[in-house]
Amino acid sequence: MSGGVFTLVAGRDLRLAGRRRFEALLPVVFFIVAASLFPLGVGPEPQVLRQIAPGVVWVCALLAAMLSLNTLFASDFQDGSLEQMLLSRHSAVFIVAGKALAHWILTGLPLILAAPVLGVLFDMHANSILTLVAGLMLGTPVLSLLGGIGAALTLGLRSGGVLILLIVLPLCIPVLIFGAGAVGMVDMGLSASGHLSLLGALLLLSLVAAPPAAAAALRISMS
Amino acid sequence: MNRSIRLNMFAAPSSFYALSGFLLPWLWLIAIGFAVAGLYIGFFVAPTDATQGDSYRIIFVHVPAAWMSMILYLVMAGWAVFGWAANARLASMVARALAPTGAMFTFLALWTGALWGKPTWGTWWVWDARLTSELILLFLYLGFMALVESIDDVRRADHAGALLALVGAINVPIIYFSVKWWNTLHQGATISMTAAPKMAATMLQAMLLMTVAFWAYSFAVVFMRTRAIILERERQAQWVRDLAAKEAA
Description:
By secondary structure, chain A is mainly alpha-helical. Chain A has helices at residues 2-19, 21-42, 46-67, 74-78, 81-87, 92-121, 126-153, 160-171, 173-187, 193-222.
């Protein structure tokens, strides 16, 4: 029953995004544009670019994921459907988790698909690109889950957009460190398994802890 | 039974207002007295350090400030969550009153750290694990304050702040260890601050005196801020009106 509402909410959000395709593409467009600014800023030396690439890709992924967060609950909140969902007999935790899954499919997944292109632009080695993609696969769901808490807390506030960044970005620092660090390890000829394992641990922890926290935050914001 | 009723009494904003008003002069007295004693010992009695000269004396402000910054975040999160879970209004007010003081101590620790770093390491800032975590702590304080300030509804602001402080408090150790690992991996700074040189007894005394002074200062300032919040939120209550009438007379 609860699993049903999870897939139902995720499917509904995806269908809604499918009706507005260009809007759904905005995060990944931002991701590519923002990352392309760095070579223009620091210069085109392949050596330098290769070194900063993992950090640049991760920071841009972080910002791209944050940018689309304030729409996570906003439209449902405005038309009242969010209130109806919370009033229903379904668990709010699964509703929130379904929304986080939809957010990840809409922003995280395109970022993962676009990352190899950026890797090539930044002259990264094939192994490094592979690690980068693996790290993003483990790390971007954490961003969507943590972002759900921030979006729920700032629901309906005037300064919501910037506020989410201020609230969620410090919490995302471990993901950034381990994600970019994994690529750094590969570049140094070492194994990235330690960093990737820790990213996996962060993912498990946020899978368990973030949806209840976001559900509680929604209750606070709606009461 | 009798005792528990007495302790609960101070959870009522009006009783807290009276009690804190009585304690405030004493707290200020302790804060100023201990600060004067601590600074005197720190600047005039404690010996000059063999390697760092006199510049090390900033630690008498820096180290207690760094301690306070971390403790106050946990205290703030604790009161905020208590206020949320038990619906205790005063606890939420104290949590909100704590945030600016905690942020101030975090900033003070960073600032004095920079003043210490320049003569000692030749640079204002290094991306050392401790400095970086302290900076992130400042961001957490700013996030908390920004969130509660931008919510107009008092109840929602208190509870939302409590949830954010709780998530932050859970994240602090994760952030600290990830930053520490990041730092050892990059080996940007080769300064070992963990291998602290042996401290002379007078240095330790000065630091402890300053710590007591900072504690008393924190209590005093947080009480004052809480009193202001109480008056603002309870302005419709009869006792606040009576108080205002008495002040005006």
